[in-house]
Fold this sequence. Notes:
Blueprint: E1 3-4, H1 7-27, E2 33-39, H2 43-58, E3 62-68, H3 74-86, E4 92-95, H4 105-111, H5 123-130, H6 141-152, E5 161-165, H7 172-181, E6 185-189, H8 195-204, E7 207-210, E8 228-231, E9 235-236, E10 242-243, H9 248-252, E11 257-258, H10 265-284
Parallel strand pairs: 1-11, 2-3, 2-4, 5-6, 5-7, 7-8, 8-11
Antiparallel strand pairs: 9-10
Helix pairs in contact: 1-10, 2-10, 6-7, 6-10
Bound molecules: 5,10-Methenyltetrahydrofolate (GUE).
Amino acid sequence: MAKIINGKEIAQKVRADVTKKVEKMIAQGITPGLAVIIVGEDPASQIYVRNKERAAAKAGINGQTIQFPTDVSEVVVFNKIQELNQDDSIDAILLQSPVPSQIDEEKMQSAIDPNKDVDGFNPLNIGKLFANRAGYYPVANTPKGIMTLLAETQVELQGKFVVILGRSILVGRPLFALLEAENATVALLHRYTSDELRHRLLQQADVVIAATGVPGLVRGIDLKAGSVVIDVGITRLPDGHLTGDVDFLAAQDTVAAITPVPGGVGPMTIATLLQTTVELAAKHHQMELQEL
Ligand SMILES: Nc1nc(=O)c2c([nH]1)NC[C@@H]1CN(c3ccc(C(=O)N[C@@H](CCC(=O)O)C(=O)O)cc3)C=[N+]21
């Protein structure tokens, strides 16, 4: 039977470390500030934003949510970003995805100050990630959280074969860069990858990361014995339950370790967002993170 990777527990560890660092920063007169912009009333987004707000408050971070109506104009959102860029009490800005069609999400991401870009979606930060630049810059929190999960689970990456399913800018693409930087050989699969090729590659994968939102896409027979499976998918079923992309019960018999949904990657995303907020605040105030 596979080891179940407890994302909640590892996220708790990250959050405890963040809370400790925030306490030390506050003692020096600095409270990290996180602003979350949300447009419209999408119920899933509302839940995530509320969870982020609650987690930030618990860690001692000054969290602020800016809610705009669905029909808000692009210039209003743009001006708000400019205002937050200038606001010295704000260290991190997040624009919750998705946004309504009158708003150009890429344009908004580019407008966020690269030094406050807590999602790592500003093209400057994406460019640094893909160039594997040295030094600190923000990286998307779901992929960064997955790297923490893998490290905490002591999964070796150097020389290993990793298959990523899904090429979104939120998950698949940054993961490709992060895993390659750890000297893994990485295949990035997508909707035009044939079923046959997907099956063949999955059977050879040491690590599988599924981030498609297609329940049951990865079957037990696709997986290699002893592999590690990270399931990023979250789909709400008609009965209200959440499910990932992987047939969890079938996979459990084959693989060495697997993340559950819920309780796997989701809690890591939120914990890592807080971690990145503190890192940006430290950089902003020229504090050394290691000393915190
Ligand atoms: N700019 C931006 N940055 C994001 O990071 C971002 C975003 N937009 N838009 C939406 C996605 C989704 N996302 C999740 C965060 C936490 C859970 C989470 O905590 N999930 C729990 C379950 C929560 C539930 O019950 O619904 C779990 O998996 O255990 C899930 C999904 C961040 N996203």
